[in-house]
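Researcher: Here's a chain I'd like modeled. Treat it as a single chain, no partners, no ligands.
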Amino acid sequence: GGRVRTMSFDTLVTGMGPGELVLVILACGIGALLIGAVGIGGVVILPALLVVGVLPAVGICSIYIAFMPAACAKLLVLGRIRGLIPWRAALSCGSTAAIGAAIGGVLVESSPRRALTYLVGVFAALAGTRDAWELYSRKMKQRGERQAEDGRHIEEPGDSPTNEIASSPRGDDAKRGADGTAGVEEAVVKLEISAPPLGTFRERVAAAYMSTDSIPEDLRWNVTEREMAILAAMGLLIGCASVLTGTGGPLILIPVLLTWKGDERISRKVIVGCSSVLAACLVTAAVISMSATGVRPDVGLTLLIAPCAIVGMATGARILQVASREFLQAAMTTLLLAVAALTISKAATG
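Model: Modeled as a single isolated chain. Structure tokens:
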């Protein structure tokens, strides 16, 4: 009996106490929820595993294998929304990121990891600070417009606020925010689609799979050939840096995209969709690379993490579909600044 137990059940999980199990489950669930909703969250999972005594290589391999089904499922869920995943941009970046991850695996022992970790932290800090300033500026503008509106109501007491809004050319758009676009910017448009005529098998499958929701045309990323070339080079560097620094690809990609494309009218959901494809490519490449070098996951740990990953990412992906622009931006800002502080302090302490 003892021999069977050693072969089948003697994993890292059997040596954990109740408190350690709760810590790992909470960290994995919260991390998966954040990954599903805003694309960044893996940064909270590995530290929890290290706290309970899991070796870094075993922890990373177990996380990657446990998250593979959830990462693919997330793409299936987000892919139903027209325009949410910019496939040309995402594959330009993701395909080369997989190659970069393989290169990083070769260079991992000789890389300037500390300097690269600093760089990741600086990028996250820049993107988080920029987002925080944009949020602050929008709130101040909204407050100024509300005060001006209140002043007009005081000067014209005979006018009904309800009538004023009803007769305003903005109409219901008055609820969108100070710039008149905040509510629209992250809206998912409901398409009125009549039942299509029966066509080929492929057309019927596509009609059954695709949602009637859609990202508005002006908020999609219609990537140019030049941008695809930039993304391909960027993916190579991000894939390599992700392995060398031990951070997730989206943790590097999202701050870079926000810094590069933040001034354009591109939905935050589209940026998260792009990072989801990159993450799936990186996870697949990392698992293959680790298997080739002899790193093996802990079976019990993988089985413990996998359900947390699936439930957390499915919930997060649903939040991403319905969340407002303000919520996503505030969540990203908070997380980016927290990640910046953690990564810079990690690099500073060696």
